[in-house]
Amino acid sequence: MLILLPPSEGKTAARRGKSLDLAALDLPALTPARERVLDALVELCEGDPDVAAKTLGIGGTQLDLVALNARLREAPTQRADHVYTGVLYDALDVATLSTAARRRSSSRVAITSSLFGLVRPGDRIPAYRLSGDTTLPGLGPVAAVWREQLGPVVTEAVGNGLLVDLRSGTYVNFWKPVGVRSATVRVLHEHQGVRRVVSHFNKATKGRIVRALLEDGATPRTPERLAEALRDLGWVVEVDGARLDVVVSDL
């Protein structure tokens, strides 16, 4: 089983640590593309900061993020699961996973990244700012770069297992599963008989689902088996083909 997570806009910068070593990251087939995206991003942010900010879609009061990107090759790194923050990652709470669950996360979880394509939780990376819908000068849309690269890498990582695709809309455009068994999860908040998608419930519940699967050690190979595993773990789940609807009433 491979669980694909979205990244987060918010990231925690390491205070100390080794600088970035692309060759040390998992999924080495992505290294050449990682080099290209990194070069384009650093070059942009070493230039006019106002131009860089506009290209990156950030405000003029956030020029510190431009400076952050300009220093990516020298910046300290830490585990990716410590860099990414936000509702999903707070709910996943990697730091408090059991030793066995953390070990499972190293091979069963991958995080989608505009800069690195995919990273494993234990990969050491710096904090950066690069959204999935950005077009970099001299490179083009970062989504198009990864669309050409991720297919073979993800397919090999999934093998005969199930791809559990928890990516958000922007990052779904990086690559769409072809030739692998896959399942997506939609979280519906039910209140007074009305169901709707609510971002906070969606992210928090997905984080809890990943945490529970890692702690349980289940390795479902089909969407139906994944639904059964989640029901065993206490969720209300409805199956519609490859999509699972997880229905929650509160956090």
TrEMBL record:
InterPro entries assigned: YaaA
Pfam families per the UniProt record, alphabetical: H2O2_YaaD (PF03883)
- Organism superkingdom: Bacteria
PANTHER family recorded? PEROXIDE STRESS RESISTANCE PROTEIN YAAA (PTHR30283:SF4), PEROXIDE STRESS RESPONSE PROTEIN YAAA (PTHR30283)
This one is known as Peroxide stress protein YaaA
Record gene name: yaaA
